[in-house]
Structures are given as C-alpha cells and as structure tokens.
What does this fold into?
Amino acid sequence: MKALMYNGIGQLALQDVPDPESDFVVKVLGCGICGTDLKTYQKGHHLFPPPAILGHEFYGLVEKAPRDCGYSVGDKVVVAPYAECGVCDVCQRDAGSLCAHKHYVEDGAFCERVGISKDYIGRGVFPLKEENDVYTLVEPLACVLNGVEQLNLKPTSRALVVGAGPMGTLFALLFSARGVPVTIVEPAAQRRERIASWGIETCEPGQVKKGVYDTVIIAVNKRELVSEYITLTADAGTVLMFSGLSKDEFVSVEAYSIHYRQVSLKGSFGYAMHHFKEALSLIDAHKETFSKIITHRYPLGRGKEAFDLLASGDALKIVLKP
Ligand SMILES: [Zn+2]
Ligand SMILES: [Zn+2]
It folds into this structure.
C-alpha cells in the first residue's frame, strides 16, 4: 500500500510499504493533519523517530474483520488513537487523558490501511452512519472537551479564546453551539475575517477589555500570553493553558490576580474516552458547524504540500485523503 512516510525533519514522501497484517483492517477515508504532526515535520518529536507514518485523526471503512467482533466489512468507523486503561489510580481520579497504561493504535494513518489489534476494537473503534470528513475532527474536539471540563463554566460565563488556529476555532464553535458568548482574539486579519463570517465575535490583541471574560483559553504556544491574560481575566475566572509549552519553559503569573482576585490557572492535555464519545455525538448533531474548520483536502501524494500550507498559517484543518 501507499504511505506518506516521515523520513526526518522537513521530509515526507509517498512510499510503498507492506499492508497491515492485523485481523481488523480499516481502509482510511480521511485523516486530519494535527499540530503534533506539523511540529514533528518541522522540528522532530521524541515519540516519532523517523522513518514513521504520522496521522491519528482518521475515519474509514472496515476492510477486514474477525468473526463476532461487532463489525462487518464495509462498515464506516472512526478510531480513537488511544484509550485509557480505566483501572489505574489516575483513571479512577477521572483523569484518563493522563493514564500511563494507555492502549494505542500502533500505526499512523497517513496511508491507505491501518491495522488494529483485536483487543482494541471494543475500546477505541466506533460505528458511523455516513462517510463524512467531519469525523476527522472527533479527536481534536475530544481534546477541546477535556479542556472545557477543566473550566468552571457558569450560566453567565463569557469566554475569550486567544488564537484563531484550528484548536482555538474549535473552542469558539463549541462555545457558540452551547450558547456561551465567545470572542476570539487573533492578530491575523485574514483569520479574524473568516471567523467573523461565521458570526463569531473577534478582536485584535490590545483591544481586550480587562475584567469582562471569566473563561480564557490560551490556544497559542506562547508563554507570555498566559501572563498577559491572567491579569485581564475577570475576578474568580479561569485561564486554561490548552497549548503545550516545553518542559524547560516557566510562566510568570501576577500574584495579585491569583490571590486577591481568585483567578485560577489550569491546563489540559489530550482526551479521555468519555470526551471522545461526547465529541462524536456533538459532531453528529452539528456536522455543518464543525465542517467549517476543514478548509482544505489533499490527496496523500501531495501530503508534503499540505504540510507546508498548514505551516504557512493559511489553512485551518487539512484532511489528507488516500
Ligand atoms: Zn490530534
Ligand atoms: Zn489508567
């Protein structure tokens, strides 16, 4: 089969690789390019040493299935890239996204077929009613739902999302779908215009009024933004560090906001299975709304071009189609 192989920083090429040998095989219909995939392509990643097939936001058709697994050939499915163990201490504390005993889909999905082990079928494979690229967004939306769970949302909450990249935009669409008033702050005029055309309020950095927003999402990986927005957050509000920062980075916070104004600083990483299931039903209910995030589709063979486009900042979500 054909696969888009990551052969090192800045290197992606369509190559022939052996077909998966698993009993359960999914023919990939679409796989979204994630921020992590882009970071790996641009800077390398300790979890994905080359050569490797990247891609984990995928859906497809069952091409091979063992007897009595609950699926038949031709069924449409979405596959979670991992599932927590559900029994360890961390899982028992409801923090499945941090489970150290996760079960994984072993192979990447920027290719024609993905093999899935028999014991993973019941954990991370879910049936779909139709073929639609919007299902590549289940995993990123699941991560957003984990972020939202960390917030102390109230009926009177007003949200501010910092950064109109794909994840910031997903947060904004989710808040709108739930009736939470939301504003997105973004320096790039082109991105602001796109979001504004969907009826979401936007503003430029420097225009954010202090004390208006009690829910602030940092969806850009710049630590100085965390410091800046803590002081702007309303009393008793919450700031969520959604974008990842590296281990050697430190964030300075204004002590007055934390103590005298009871502003909380939280973080979130990944998803747990209940977020994945909730994301799937939300996408089923709001297909058209979430589809707006997908701005481009590319054939697998033009994958490198798609990664370069994503790096330029001109696209939101790009789906690669084998
Ligand atoms: Zn992802
Ligand atoms: Zn666990």
Summary: The chain has a mean pLDDT of 96.
